[in-house]
User: Fold this.
Amino acid sequence: MARRHPLVMIQCTCLIRYLVQFAYLLLLGFVETSRVLVRCLRPRAARAAEHLFLRTQLALYQEQKVNPRRATHATRLA
Assistant:
């Protein structure tokens, strides 16, 4: 049985890691693109209602001089 050089093994594992990262980035790009398309295809009234809600929320934060909390994964999902 032939032994491989340790450097070759390191290069192979690096290549595999880069391929996995690339596949992950492609998947994320696909998911984000689909989200944008879904949001663009929503009815105009729904988009207007969302903007109104966000503007009201922003005005409330500015009026109370409160810094908004950072969004968690749970709030993003909701």
